[in-house]
Amino acid sequence: DAKTTQPTSMDCAEGRAANLPCNHSTISGNEYVYWYRQIHSQGPQYIIHGLKNNETNEMASLIITEDRKSSTLILPHATLRDTAVYYCIVGSSGDKLTFGTGTRLAVRP
Amino acid sequence: DAGVIQSPRHEVTEMGQEVTLRCKPISGHDYLFWYRQTMMRGLELLIYFNNNVPIDDSGMPEDRFSAKMPNASFSTLKIQPSEPRDSAVYFCASSRTSGGPYEQYFGPGTRLTVT
Known about the structure:
The complex is a heterodimer of chains A (about 110) and B (about 120). The mean pLDDT of chain A is about 90. Chain A has about 110 residues and is mainly β. Chain A is about 0% helix and about 50% strand. Chain A contains no helices and nine strands. Chain B is mainly β. Chain B has no helices and eleven strands. The relative contact order of chain B is 0.34. Classes of the chains: A mainly beta (about 110), B mainly beta (about 120). The interface between A and B is medium-sized, with 19 and 22 residues.
């Protein structure tokens, strides 16, 4: 039973913002939203996580709706190196993380 | 820090042979995870350890698979005997818990081909 729903694929132009949506309508109060990405032939890479508030780090921003049923990962200025599969994962602290199929993001030159 | 180290990076073996994959987690991390990735099934968690103790091995496909963590800096995943359907990329990841959510750091993976 999938906890998250993501579009299969997306694309954006290099230099523009990439906005990747994720639905997690059954998220419970103690569950976090994590984002990872996997560049071809590499291991997954942690990007960001959040509980209720919006979060920002050097890689991306995470916007979580007030009801916490959906979120958006924002890459503010996408580059070709951001082409990857992006995974939105919901889980509690200390839980194992279950990776779904993710969103395949293609950044166009 | 060198990150999570996995060896070998590539392994080609014949059906029926024993295969041992190795992982060195990041120093100070107390969780270690073994994943398998295939085109058909995606990224699957096989087993994870906390403080060298196996916590959940429900993802281990069958008795041919076994994993050990003899100390905090080393873990092995063994397949005996190997079969062609075991061909996949095997990732090891580690993380550190400090009372809150944690990030998993993944190794580069071992690409296993069983002929």
